[in-house]
Amino acid sequence: MALSRTLGRKAAMEMLLGGDTIDAARALQIGLVNRVVAACELRPTVQALAAQIAAKPARIVALGKAAFTRQIEMDLDHAYADAASVMVDNLSLPDAAEGIDAFLEKRPPNWCD
Predict the structure, then answer these.
(1) Residue 19 domain-assigned (yes or no)
(2) Which partner for 74 in 52, 64, 78, 108 could form a disulfide, CB atoms 3.0-4.6 Å apart?
(3) Is 24 part of a structural domain of the chain?
């Protein structure tokens, strides 16, 4: 994804024209990275995030990732329409009913996949 779509225009322009390297704190501040951790915390942090994602239904994660990628290139009206369509499609999957039931029953979900 282009730098200008990932960051705000001002930060992207500064990086592109200035050419300076940035430190972790600045990368976090401008949204280039989601979080910054000490080197000794990197592996456990990555493993925890990977486990969190892996605990979700793979099909739902794939649909969400595809929708995000598609919508980032759309204007707002088309992105909202696409998101509504994706939500309706997701609600037809067995894992949607399980997720709703688990939430209402205050228990962990038992995903199909």
Answers:
(1) no
(2) 78
(3) no
Rg (C-alpha) for the chain, rounded Å, is 19
Going by pLDDT thresholds of 50, 70 and 90, the confidence category of residue 47 is very high
pTM of the full structure: 0.70
Residue 102 has pLDDT above 90, yes or no: yes
Residue 70 burial class via C-beta count within 10 angstroms: exposed 0-12, middle 13-18, buried 19 and up: middle
75 or 113: which carries more pLDDT confidence?
75
Cα–Cα distance, 107 to 75 (Å, whole number): 38
Task: Indicate the residue type of 11.
Answer: A
Count of domains forming the chain: 1
Range of the domain at 113: 56-113
Structure token digits, residue 33: 């990275």
Position 111 in a domain: yes
The answer to whether position 109 is within a domain reads: yes
Helices (H), the chain: 3-6, 9-18, 24-29, 39-54, 58-71, 76-91, 94-104
